[in-house]
Specification:
Blueprint lengths: L1 E6 L1 H6 L3 E5 L6 H11 L11 E4 L2 E3 L10 E5 L7 E5 L5 H7 L7 E8 L10 E8 L1 H19 L2 E7 L1 E4 L3 E9 L2 H18 L2 E7 L2 E5 L4
Parallel strand pairs: 1-5, 6-9
Antiparallel strand pairs: 1-2, 3-4, 3-5, 7-11, 8-10, 8-12, 9-11, 12-13
């Protein structure tokens, strides 16, 4: 059977962004890794630190594969990154503290708050976010790994789910890097990638009804 394999950050640099491999019908995720490591021997040294994903969610190494599956091998978010979904208020100070490193001379924090006016001018009573949590954490980890590899940055993200009252933070992104340019660019990259790729949906409650839409839409 044919399987598509994706890799990110250092693993991508050592192999390929995307590869198609042939495996026997009884193959598991571990077999896919071994096939990639045979093709790209430099991968093997990273095995103990890698996590595997199947269909957009983390999966065990013994998970069975099926024809046409897309899987991913993800490096650790080695800069001390942290990804959180929470149904309560975001602890911004804790998020910033989690990324503190002596070598990070610049820290940039972005907070997206629930506002009381929609883009079309209607008054908003409250927001509600619904997530596909298993996939969301995997996607956040991918985004963080991409930002880390590109800007040598540590990334912290906390995103609310459920009801978010007006004025409270719906999402917080902290990026830390050796220099301010990297911290700024990494932060912007993460929020734009979240808007494009993260499986979280927003409902704005208006006085005249409700409307579903993705964050940032």
């Amino acid at each position: 059977m044919q399987i598509t394999v994706r890799t990110f950050a250092i693993l991508r640099e050592l192999s390929a962004d995307r590869a198609v491999i042939e495996l026997p019908p009884s193959a598991r995720l571990e077999d896919a890794w071994n096939a990639m490591a045979d093709r790209y021997p430099a991968l093997q040294a990273h095995r103990s630190f890698v996590r595997a994903a199947r269909a957009g969610a983390y999966a065990a190494w013994d998970a069975a594969l099926s024809e046409g599956d897309e899987i991913a091998f993800l490096p650790p978010v080695s800069g001390g990154s942290t990804m959180t979904l929470t149904d309560g208020p975001i602890d911004l100070a804790a998020l910033e503290a989690a990324l503190a490193r002596p070598g990070h001379g610049a820290v940039v924090t972005f907070v997206g708050r629930a506002r009381d006016i929609a883009d079309d001018g209607r008054g908003v009573l409250e927001l509600e976010y619904e997530a596909y949590p298993e996939m969301a954490i995997a996607v956040l980890s991918e985004i963080a790994a991409e930002a880390e590899a590109r800007w040598d940055a540590a990334v912290g993200v906390a995103h609310r789910t459920g009801i978010v009252p007006i004025g409270e933070a719906a999402v917080a992104i902290v990026t830390a890097a050796p220099h301010r340019a990297g911290a700024y660019e990494a932060n912007r990259y993460v929020i734009e990638a979240i808007k494009e790729r993260l499986p979280i949906w927003k409902r704005e409650r208006f006085a005249d009804g409700t409307e579903w839409k993705r964050p940032g839409a």
